[in-house]
Structures are given as structure tokens and as C-alpha cells.
Amino acid sequence: RPSDHQTIRPSDHQTMSILIRNMKTSMKPSLTVVKRSLITTSNNKAWLGFSKDQEKTSSHSMLLSKDQSVYEIVTDTVIPSQWDSYLQHKKKLVECAASNQQLKGKLMASWTIVTGDTAFKAVHLYKYEQGWTDIDTTRAAIKQDSDYQALYTAGLPVIRQQFTELTKAFSFWPSPDQREGGNVYDIRSYSLRPGSMYDWSMNWSRGIQYRSAVRLDVPYAGLFTQLGQLHTIYHIWCYKSMADRKACREATWHYPEWNDVVANTVPLVKTMKTRILEPLDFSPTQ
User: Fold this and answer.
1) Contact 72, 164 (CB under 8 A)
2) pLDDT tens across 214-238, in order?
């Protein structure tokens, strides 16, 4: 059942296509250098649908999220000599979870680090479609599933560290889906200054249109943390190759308005990081 604040809207790709078509009819790519300055957004609600004042009385999860779904990011740092054993065991654990209908976390993607982070690290993205209700159901079901518990415990010796975060998806990003082919994924994480989420979202609700105008399938997921390191944003981009990544990123600068998005969001960031990942063999998205 949709949450109280959820609205009925066209599909993500349909909505994005309409916005991009309108944008392309009114914009011509240009390499004109535009002076960068920080633009305030206190009274501008044209893109997000609510004013900054509403941020004082409502949660970010209610104002900014796409729907009631919650996304879990699980990061496993693996003992290098045990990497192959880890992959075999993780695949069995995924299959075991899928066989129990009370375990509601749907695996969306599993990646391994290519560059930008510690080697022999795996990142898994799960979707809980009914949000916190599904998470509660899953926690209770795991306690009753002896097979899953035994399999999970048996795999712990090959893992040095496991870190879990729970996130929500931005309403103006597409939902994670299944991709085919040998893609590479760029996960860019941003630690924001507290109180800057509205301005970040206002600018990126425009910025995502310019990135999508280059090619509609480049954006994969935009997430913000609910439990874990708070004020953290994850932008996940999908590219056909590293060369394709370079070309797509450079093409975005052909839109002069992209300059403003960058200029307005950089002052909001405390730290940022980018990692290149590739899908594991059993990942639903490739």
C-alpha cells in the first residue's frame, strides 16, 4: 500500500524522457564559460514541489524520497586469500534468502571494487519495497530461519569487516533497475554539511536532467542515508566503459546551466569520494 505522502506518477523513464525532450527544445549545447556564483534557494520550490520552510516541520524521508522503499547497502571487506570462497558462499546465501518469502530484501546489485577503494571489497544493494515494515519482517524471519543463520555464520571467517547502511531514494532520480552488458558503475559519495540537504536536492533535481540529457541510462540510483553515517549522499552512475564515463561527463559541461549546479553544491560538501565498481557474476544488474 502506498504511503500517505506517495503520489501517483508516470514511470521514471517516461517522466525523465518528457523533461529531457522539453529541455533539448529550449537548450543548445554550448561551451560558453558562465560565471559561477552561489544561488540561494530559500523561496524556490519549482523543482522539488515544497519550500525550504517545510524542511523545518517535516522529515527528509517524507519530503525527498520517491516512495516508502528502503535500500540497504552492505559492504563486505574480504580477506584477500579467501576472495573466491567468499564469492561462492555469498551466492549460496543470496539463493537461501530468495527461497524464504519472509526475507523481504530483494538483491538489486552486487559489485566489486575496481579502483578508488580497498581491494577485495564487495558492495551489495538490497531493496525493501514496503520499507520499514519489510525490514521488521525480515529481522524476525531471520531469527526463525536456522538454515540461513547457519550459512551466514559459516561465511563470517572470510570477512574482515561488514558495514551496513539504510537509505532512501531521491524522488527525482530513477529507481535502480536491472542492466545488461559489461557495465562499470561509478559510486560517488558525499558527506554534506548538516542543514544543506534542501539546497543539495534543489540543485540536483535540475542537475540530474542535464546528466540524463547526455544519455538516459547513465543515472542508476540516488540515495540518502537514514541509518549509518548521516548526511551522506550516494550517486550511482552506470557507464558502458571507462572511456564512456569520460565522454558522458565531459558532454554534461556542454550545458551552461550545469555550471550553476556544480557551483551551488560544492560549498555544501564536507568530503567526497568516487569509486569504480563492476558487477559480480551473480549480480541481478550487470
Assistant:
1) yes
2) 999 999 999 999 999 999 999 999 9
Q: What are the residues whose beta carbons fall under 8 Å from the beta carbon of 244, sequence distance 6 or more? A: none
Query: How many angstroms separate the CA atoms of 33 and 159, rounded?
Result: 49
DSSP lists the bridge partners of residue 123 as: 75, 111
Query: How far from the centroid of its chain's Cα atoms is residue 273's Cα?
Result: 14
Distance CA(107)–CA(161), nearest Å, equals 20
Distance separating alpha carbons of residues 37 and 168, to the nearest angstrom: 30
pTM more than 0.90: no
Cα–Cα distance, 122 to 275 (Å, whole number): 12
> How do beta strands 232-239 and 219-227 pair?
antiparallel
Convert the pLDDT of each residue in 171-201 to its tens digit: 999 999 999 988 999 999 999 999 999 999 9
